[in-house]
Amino acid sequence: MSGTNHINGAVNNKIEAELLPDNTLDVQNIVEKLRNRWYWFVICLLLTGTLAWVYLRYSTARYNINAKILVKDDKKGGDIQGQEILDQLGVFNTKSNVDNEVEILKSRSIIEKVVRDLKLNVTYVVEGHLKKAEVLDVPFTASWLYLKDTLKNVQYVLKPLDETKFRFNTSHREKTLNWGDTIQLEEGVLRVTRNKQVELVGEEYLINVTSFDNAVAAYQQKINVEIPNKQVSVINLSIESTIPRKGEIILNKLIEKYLQASVEDKNRIVDSTIAFVDNRLMLVSSELSGVEKQIQQFKQENDLADLEEQSKVLVSGTEDLNKQLTEQEVRLSIVESIEQYIKDQNNSKRIVPSSLVVQDPTFLAIVEKYNAMQLDRQRSLMTTTETNPFIKNIDEQLASLRADLSANIASLKSGIVIAINQLKTRMGGISSQIKQVPGKERVFLDFSRQQAVKQELYLFLLKKREESAISKSSNLAIARIIDPAKSDSAPFAPKRTMIYLFALVAGLAIPAVALYLKDLFNRRIGSREDIVHNTTVPILAEVGHSDHKELVVVRKGSVAPVVEQFRAIRTNLQFILGDKGQVILLTSSMSGEGKSFVATNIASVLALSGKSVVLMEMDLRKPKISEQLGLVNQYGFSTYVIGKSTVDELIKPSGFHENCYIVSSGPIPPNPAELLLLPATEKLFRELRQRFDYVIVDTAPVGLVTDAQLLGRFADATLYLVRQGYTFKQQLLLSRDLHVNGKLPKMNIIVNDVKIGSGYGYGYGYGYGYGYGYGYSDTVRPTNGLISKVKRSLAKK
Q: Which of the listed CATH numbers 3.40.50.300, 3.20.20.100, 1.10.10.60, 3.40.50.150 matches domain 524-796?
């Protein structure tokens, strides 16, 4: 027993291994399925290609606009030529940082200036037949004299009529106005003027207006500012736009406002410095003027021009006066000596000495005359005596001259005394002034010191103001433009190549995925692999789809492809039946799979080979063969087994071949299964084996009733019918169970209603596309409409 169990276990393991699905990817089968459905790919490619063309034709092209600037960053070496000259002035020593400049470029204040300058809150749209397109150049200019900040998005329609008028539509009203008119709107005051630089056309223009806040927020999202890497001080700016020139204008304006703001920041510092210096200059100038006025008043009050020089003059004047006083005193002394000399009577006969000190001409003339007469007297006395009248006369003259000399000397003395007194007086005044010089000098030095300090401060401020003015005129922006804004030559979206490539991929992928999903979720048999993966029963043959309505298609002289398929079945039956096999049982999982059609034509093809064949209509619940062949079904198997008919009455000519006979089912019994268990059934099969070469048994579906299993004990081989697109995959598990457990003898599968292009794949080289299609089933199968017609027309060709 253990040996037997071991053998049974090995057999079961082998069977389970055979039942395991093969997970290897059958590329050839997949390609074959796709090739058989090529029309799906053609239709999808045409559809996706058309959609791609339409999309490209009516989509709005979008362009990338790029610009590049270099920022001065001391940490990254982005110095600007000429900046070192400004740094030497020492006025600006601020450092910049590229990351900070990126944030400034993205700041709301800078972008708001751009939006307001370019009026980006207003856009103009021309409505075409299938799409709307924004335009930049319009034949008019819409200027808002006043616009609410809380404005919501609004839209107006403007249509130029001629060179003088236009029509203006709002959501509430329509007006015809003249160019240049002012329009009072809820949102503000609008003026529309004619732009004669743009040609006037009769198109309608949509004027979309939004608030500045919304426009600024939108452009903050659109404008991209980034640093390529952390090793450089270059900033890349980019924006996407449907109008390349508009994008270039926006980026260039952004750079302009950024550079202008950079210079304004520096100028603001300079202006602040200049304003401070100017205020200080006014104050210092006022203080300096006050000090200078005090010096002027001091000099005026003290009769000073130059204190130092005047001090020197005073000292020098004192010395001069002392000298003059000495000279006068010497003269006075000489005059007094001469006066005493003249008064002395002892000297009356002597010559009066002349003096260089006394330079009075009168005195000198008298002295000269007196001395001359004295000399004449002395010469005369050498010859005469003193009593001589001549001498007497000379003496009288000398006495008169002496009196004159005394009077002259007295006058001269008086003049010298007066001069001496005056000199002494002057010397006293000068001495008094010299005593006052130190005090005045101290006060004057204090004033001079204040004047020097104020003047130095004044000159310093003047110098700094001039330096600031020079630096302001030489101020450079913190960055310079490397590449101004420039649009790409081709739009980045939509990409024609990518769109068409996507259309190609989609045109191939959509039907492929659809077919895959269809196969994946399809519960019915669609391919040979579906059969192989769900049952171990071998496939004997396939019968193609046919549009013929007759039950019997295999007739003498027929060369139709479906006839060749039945001939192939006849040949294959020889291998499974052997020499002794006669009884062939046909069953299926459910009704409608074509058992009667296949059984009838197998009987016919065997009869064509010269064999005697009997076809038993053993589907006692739902017989169809007799009805379709036009035979009377009053007597049959059901009447035979209950003894109401004989074998000879039971066997009837088929009507389509002389070697083929029919055993009809007879009236439908209430207990078919019980009738099959009667001994008469076994007796009938023994009788038929003796009379005919082949017995073809068309029985009821084994998946619904047990009739086939009851008749299986009389059969030599079993043909299990599977219909493509009709039999459920799960139903094949029944055939596997029947085969594994040996419930039916020599089971083989015949695949019925195989259609061309279905991806089934013929195993025997038949690709004609014909087969069973007369509509055995009571249910109506759905058709594929247009696709079915295309397939049939292609098959006929």
A: 3.40.50.300
